[in-house]
Each structure stands twice: as C-alpha cells, then as structure tokens.
Amino acid sequence: MSKAITVVGLGSGDPDQLTLGIWKILQGASRVYVRTKEHPVMHRIAAEGIAFESFDSVYEANESFGDVYESIARRIIELADQGELVYAVPGHPMVAEKTVLLLREYAEAADVSLTVLGGESFLDQAFVRLGFDPIEGFQLLDSSDVTPEHIRPSLHTLIGQVYDSLTASEVKLGLMDVYPDDHPVVVGHALGVEGEERILRVPLYELDRLEGYGNLSLVYIPRSEDEALRAGSFARLHEIVNILRSPGGCPWDMEQTHASIRKNLIEETYEVLETIDEDDPDHMREELGDLLLQIMLHSQMEEEVGTFNVYDVIRGLNEKLIFRHPHVFGDSAAGDAEEALKNWDAMKEEEKKRKGLSEPEASLLDGVPRDLPALMKAYKIQKKAAKVGFDWDEVSSAFAKIEEELGELREGLAKGADSEALKLELGDLLFSAVNAARFLKIDPEEALSLVNDKFRRRFRYIEDRLRERGSSPQTSTLDEMDALWNEAKAAE
After folding, report:
1. What contacts 24+ positions apart, CB below 8 Å, involve 345-354?
2. Is 344 a residue whose pLDDT tops 60?
3. How far apart are CA 472 and CA 115, in angstroms?
4. Are strands 138-142 and 53-54 parallel, antiparallel or unpaired?
5. In the predicted model, what is the mean pLDDT of residues 157-184?
6. Rounded to an integer, what distance in angstroms lies between the CA atom of residue 182 and that of residue 401?
C-alpha cells in the first residue's frame, strides 16, 4: 500500500480561481481531508459531490493554534498509513500554512511520500485588489509578529491571520509603537471573493473597532518614505552616526577619535546617574540617548577601519546575556537573586576558560577596571577578595579596623608625618570605611552621593537665608552659618 499525501491549495476564496489541475485531483481522490470547511471554495466542492472530512473539531479540542497545527499534521501522517490521500488547505500550501511545514518534516521521518501543489494565495489577490507592486519592497507578517523589531515603514506591509477584533487590537497596539495613532491603514476582507469582498480605509486607532474580521481578513499598510516613521529605529540611528562621520558630514564629528571623546563617555554616564538620583524619567530618557550616542560613535570609528560595528557589539552582548543566564535560557535554576549572581559569576569564569583568559598567574582582582572612581574600585576589590575568604568574620571587626586606622592617622598627624604618609593613612581609613559599608550591604558610592546631596541642600538653605538678610557666606561668621545649618537639619 502506497503511503502518499498530496497537498493542494484551495486558493484565496474565489472558486473560479481554483486551477483545473487541482479540481481534477479533488474529483479523482478517494480520500479528501481539509484543514477547515470555513472557506468559500468548500461550498463549491460540496456542491460538486466531492466527499471530505474537516479538522474543525481539532480547533475546539486544543488551547492554542500551535497545538491545533501539530495535532492536524500528526493525524494526517497517521491517516497516510491507510493509503493515498489529499489534504486541502486555504490559499497556497506554502504561504502562512503551518500544517504543511510540519508535514514536510514528519513525512520524511515516517517514510511517507509528500507532494505539494500550489494554489492562488491571498497574496495574489492582495497585490491586485490593493494595487501595489511587491518589487517596491514588501513584507508579510503574522498578526502575532507585529513588533517594532519587525515593522519597516519603507516596505509595503501585509499582516495576515487577523481573525477577530481581539487580534486586530493586538495588531493595532504593535503598529502604534511605530506609526502615529491616525496613520491610514487598509483592512481587507475576503479579497477577490465575489459578493464578500470588503476593503476599508481607516485611521489606525479605529482598527479594532471594525466588524467582520474572520479567516479571510488582513491588514495592509502602504510603504512610506516619511522620515518621522524611521526616527524610532536603531537602523536609522546607525545611519545618522555614519553620515555625521562621513565626508561631507559634521566637521567636529569627523575629527574625533576614541581618545578625544573618552571624557565624554564618563561625563554622559554621570549625567545619567544624576537623573536616576533625581527620579526624573523624562531627563533620564534624554541622557540615556546621549550615552548611547557615545557607544555609537566609538563603534562607528571601529567600523570605519573594519574591526567591528555596533551590530557586532549587540551580537556579543546577546550571546553573553544568554550564556551567563543558564537559569533563564538553560537548564540551571536560581531561586533568588543571590543564586542568580552565583550562576553569573560561574558562567563568567567558564567564559574566560573558553577564551583562554584564565591563566594560573592571573590575579582575582584583574577584572576591576583601572579607571573606576576610587571609592567604587575599593568596593569591587574587597568584594572579589571576600569571595575567596579574605575577609573579616563579622562587621565588628570592620568597625575595629576603622578605629585602628583613625588612630594611626591621628598619630601620624601628631608626629608631624609628611603629606604623602598622611595621604596613605587617610586612604587606609577610607578603605576600612568601605569595608564596613560592604558588611552593611550598602554601596559606599551611593551612600556618599546621598550625603553630598544632603550637604548641598543644607548649604543652599544657608545661602538662601543669608541672602534674605542681605548677607552671604563670605561675610558671615561660622557661628551664624552653623546656626542656619542646624535649622536646615531640623527642617528635614
């Protein structure tokens, strides 16, 4: 008994567009199965006396379309054990037809002969009825894939599988991430089907307010060269930075090197930190953009000499994030943040081994950036040393060390030690204070930033009150300013 499946496409919905060859196959088949009978051509097939079985019941028995398609494909393979059959699907078998893709995979494994014959797809009618040429640039999206990453306004865009108003709502929200709310879109129902076709042009915000969505519905957005639509794309940012650095671009940008804008990267980072401290989202958005520009400029400089580009940077980051989060993307587990951090550190070490960077003579402290601010660097150095047991057992020992270093600083000052010696003693004291902060699980950089802000507020209070009196810090006594300091402290 021959185990063979012939897959045919039922076209976009107009029975007159069904090919003669497929009509003959359907009429001559002893067993015909259709994915769904909810298709205009099925009325003509039934009228011709062609017997068939549908898989519509499978939709009711499964919770997701993925499960539906999986069940249908496996059932078709099982039925092929009983002899030749014809499996008919809406449209073209290789356009937005998941069951056929699965059949191609399963048939080979089950030693079943599979023949796929074409048919008019909904794309053919879309090109004709909506009046655009795909050679101008065209993309086809599933309704579940309408995200900013996939949407390219410079291409004609068709969105299929828009079954109902809920799906239309999800499509609308996805499109609104790129297009303005009132951007014109086209909704097509049963394109090319006589008596059923409807083509509606509406503003985007009305997309889910329309009625009549079903199996033959789609959404179309004509291509646009409007620069405003590209403003939110990463590709446009990359293009702009390239133009700025190219001949004929900005003279200042063209002259810059890694070294010349090194300080800008640091400055922009601190400006971002300031917006975080101020809890100012609008300002943060702007400053994050300035920081991103620095990354783009450094990447563009390397792209110009052929070492890497910003997409290589992104690729490397994606790979690192996946590799260092085995509890998310792999088989490991992490019940809390501490376990997640242990996984990160373990995978980081594994990463070094794979790159050949783990040398016996390397120091555990080598990973601390040389140019970090000293307070932050001390915190990171101590954390790395503590991981291998070089640490106090309890916070009281850290406090005792602070007292010891403070005593040595006083002693040095009393004995007339030179400035270099006093500088080292003061450094020891600060280093010990950082150690205590680590035991208290307080970032010393953040703690000192808070105190800096507090000092600025109170000192500004002193300046304001003195100004009201017609005075200033320069013309006031310490006692006067100290009294105002205490007022500011009490007010807080």
Report:
1. 345/387, 347/323, 348/324, 351/320, 351/323, 351/324
2. yes
3. 92
4. unpaired
5. 95
6. 66
Q: Is pLDDT of 358 > 60?
A: no
Residues 428, 421: Cα–Cα separation, whole Å: 11
Distances in Å between the Cα of 357 and the Cα atoms of 354, 361, 362, 382, 386 are 8, 11, 9, 22, 22
Burial class (CB in 10 A: 0-12, 13-18, 19+), 9: buried
Conformational region of residue 310, where left means phi above 0, alpha means psi within -120 to 50, and beta covers everything else: alpha
For residue 387, give every residue at least 6 positions away whose Cβ sits within 8 Å of its Cβ, in sequence order, or none.
345, 364
Alpha helices in 306-418 (DSSP H): 310-323, 326-329, 337-354, 374-386, 395-414
pLDDT digits (tens, 9 = 90+) for 100-127: 999 999 998 899 999 999 888 899 999 9
**Average pLDDT, stretch 457-463?**
94
Q: What is the pLDDT of residue 306?
A: 95
Rounded Cα–Cα distance for residues 98 and 239 (Å): 36
d(CA 258, CA 241): 15
Q: Could you tell me which residues come within 8 angstroms of residue 422 by beta carbon, excluding any fewer than 6 positions away?
A: 409, 412, 413
H/E element holding 441? none
Three state DSSP letters for 88-136: EECECCCCCCHHHHHHHHHHHHCCCEEEECCCCCHHHHHHHHHCCCHHH
Q: Mean pLDDT, to the nearest integer, of 328-337? A: 79
Model-level pTM?
A: 0.63
Beta-bridge partners for 202:
185
Burial of 387 (0-12, 13-18, 19+ CB in 10 A): exposed
56 pLDDT exceeds 70? Answer: yes
160 SS3 class: strand
pLDDT digits (tens, 9 = 90+) for 406-442: 999 999 999 999 999 999 999 999 999 999 999 898 9
Return the amino acid letter for 372: L
CA 442/CA 389 separation, integer angstroms: 20
